Amino acid sequence: MEQTFNISVFTENSIGILNRITIIFTRRHLNIESITASECEVPGVFRYTIVVNTSEEKVIKVVNQIEKQVDVLKAFYHSDSEVVYQEMALYKLPTNLNNGGEMEQILRMHHARILSLSPEFTTIEKTGRPEEINSLFEALHPFGVLEYAKSGRVAISKPMKTLEDYLTEMSFEV
Amino acid sequence: MNKMNITGAESVIRSLLAEDVSTIFGYPGGAIMPIYDALYDFREQVNHILVRHEQGAIHAAQGFARSSGKTGVVFATSGPGATNLITGLADALIDSTPVVCITGQVASHLLGTDAFQETDVIGISMPVTKWNIQVTKSEDIPAAIARAFYIASTGRPGPVLVDITKDAQFGKFDFQYEKCSSIRSYLPKPELNVDLLHKAASLINNAKKPYLLIGQGILLSEAQNELMTFVEKSGLPVASTLLGLGAFPAKHPNYVGYLGMHGNYAPNVLTNECDVLIAIGMRFDDRVTGDVSRYAKQAKLIHIDIDKAELNKIIPAEIAIHSDAKEALTALNKLVQSKNHDEWLNEFRKLELEEYEEVITDAIHPKEGELKMSEVVNLISEITDGEAIVVTDVGQHQMITSRYFKYQKPKTNITSGGLGTMGFALPAAIGAKLGAPEKEVIAIIGDGGFQMTIQELGTILQCGAAVKIVILNNNFLGMVRQWQQLFFDRRYSFTDIKNPNFLKIAEGYGVSGEKVTTREDLKIGLNNLLSNKNSYLLEVIVEREENVFPMVPTGASVSEILLTEKHGTNI
Ligand SMILES: Cc1ncc(C[n+]2csc(CCOP(=O)(O)OP(=O)(O)O)c2C)c(N)n1
Questions:
Q1: Interface test mutation site (partner A, options B132, B184, B314, max chain A beta carbons within 10 A)
Q2: Long-range contacts of A122-127 (CB under 8 A, 24+ apart)
Q3: Domains delineated in chain A
Q4: pLDDT digits over B218-250, tens only?
Q5: Which of A168, B379, B411, B415 is the most buried (most CB within 10 A)?
Q6: Closest chain A residue to B306, measured at CA
Q7: Nearest CA to ligand 1 atom 13
């Protein structure tokens, strides 16, 4: 059965490692729904959050292949219920001061905020689940969304074991 | 080992010396010229074999690695030199062969500019290397090479590639070499899980029909002695994958044969009868399993492999042990009980007899008609007592050799298994000979495959490797023709191959030889081949439309293996 999985990959900061990881997905015809990367809590170690829709059987095999890469420290997969996750979106709209407070209502209701304001356009920021981001998009649609950009997912796992625990288990200094 | 103010190029050679490299297979060109220039000063210490094509270099390095157990080393230039390595890299990756390729690259300021002979070698080779790296600074060279050797040869071995820009080869620095002994993100030697091992032993001890499958992992971890102890103690039948041949002597009473599509009858059929299946250092390739949904369903599987990603990948294991084969076997030997399974072994013997009567007798002792590949291979096996290093190419002759050569010793079976690369055998045999000069090296090649890397006769001419070449000439791309006959209504679409005069070509390269067409001449021909001190080519004209049987047709279960054509092929 297909479901959404959040794959977390911890790697050394080496050139080309992202390519090595994505090849594993391409080869198995797996679409990456979103991918984000940044340095994690351990200095010098990078964290990739990769979201895919697939079966658990497949995700296990993919994670094994990822972990097999020389520069990968550890890879995990979690279902949506096992992670806390967020995405962020920016919306650019024409600035229109005569909307009778309707805009204010929408922003309050959606817990969104205004990032920048200029005579020509307004930028709105919203963080949340994909559905929430989408529903704000729908609400803003009538005002004419000029541009819309959304980040990939960032996720943190609920189980309490930390990466450092794993690294220590793998017997090297953190 | 330290040396002040040397060029990056010289540091490459000194690093290789520090890794105990004695042989390099390579081909020069613009972007690797500084390294070749440095090599000129080390001609006495390193044997550089000039090949005739870079594909030849990497296959030779693979042959060298497989016969010697050491890491093969390849030099190639940028662009076309490097792209010519790709087939060999893919071959070495899928067959777990340790190879270090060093390629020259355009100067770093030209990277990404489409400079002359610039290709994205790192990008192209990424899916076919265990690891690769581009070095743009001289002082980074030693550490990169140290890592390369460490990664190539440890864990599940594989090919690595180090791409070095020309400016890094020219630059000077103070050389120091330190071998790599660990990388924090890479754990080549997993810790043995003792609990699982006890469970495995108890499963084996309580089994009525335990059955052991072995693969190349035994050879790579040099576990043949531990394997022998394990088998003789626990008394179970042993079968081998294509790459595992030689890990256990074929003439041993517990050996029941070769697995897979063209393997022996008993080991395939009885896979679906055993109660405990133990698989060590093998990965359940589809050529071994046939239809996986009908593979050993009744059995509990104990799978031992050093590559964690292979466990539960194809066949779910009851007990998956992530371990080096030798370590696991050493530990298991203390836990398994002495047993004999004669009755169970007899079931194998019964089917073996059936195969013998229906297939083998005719194949190795035909009374009339043209020569058969199988009788040639059988005779080579008898004359050499199964002890020669036999290198095969890809096709019918390869399957026939795997069936009829009785491999007795480890590291004597060299073939392209996972990738099935035609053109592998000739260069691999050259490498194998250089890796084990004291051994007889016989390359058994089809007339098609021989022409894929025929230019490597030039390498033999130059380096003098005494490789014995047997061409089994059926004037067909035989294996494809067999499939056309069986599954495509005998429509022989472009498999009828017109061949050159092989002997004349060989003669042009200084390799003498002869052609045999009759049973009477075969023995004499083989004697000439083996008694010659130098390389020799024996062309054997064999039956044009001989088919390899038994066969597990695509999509069939291993137990539906067809003993002969008569058993039906319309699957
Ligand atoms: C590089 C490459 N191209 C194509 C194939 C497909 N193929 C597999 S076996 C075979 C025929 C080999 O013919 P030959 O070398 O004469 O050996 P035979 O089967 O007759 O023993 C071919 C074309 C391959 N394995 N490798």
A1: B184
A2: A122/A92, A122/A93, A122/A94, A122/A95, A123/A90, A123/A91, A123/A92, A124/A90, A124/A91, A124/A92, A124/A93, A125/A88, A125/A89, A125/A90, A125/A91, A126/A88, A126/A89, A126/A91, A127/A86, A127/A87, A127/A88, A127/A89
A3: 3-83 (3.30.70.260), 84-150 (3.30.70.1150)
A4: 999 999 999 999 999 999 999 999 999 999 999
A5: B415
A6: A68
A7: B477
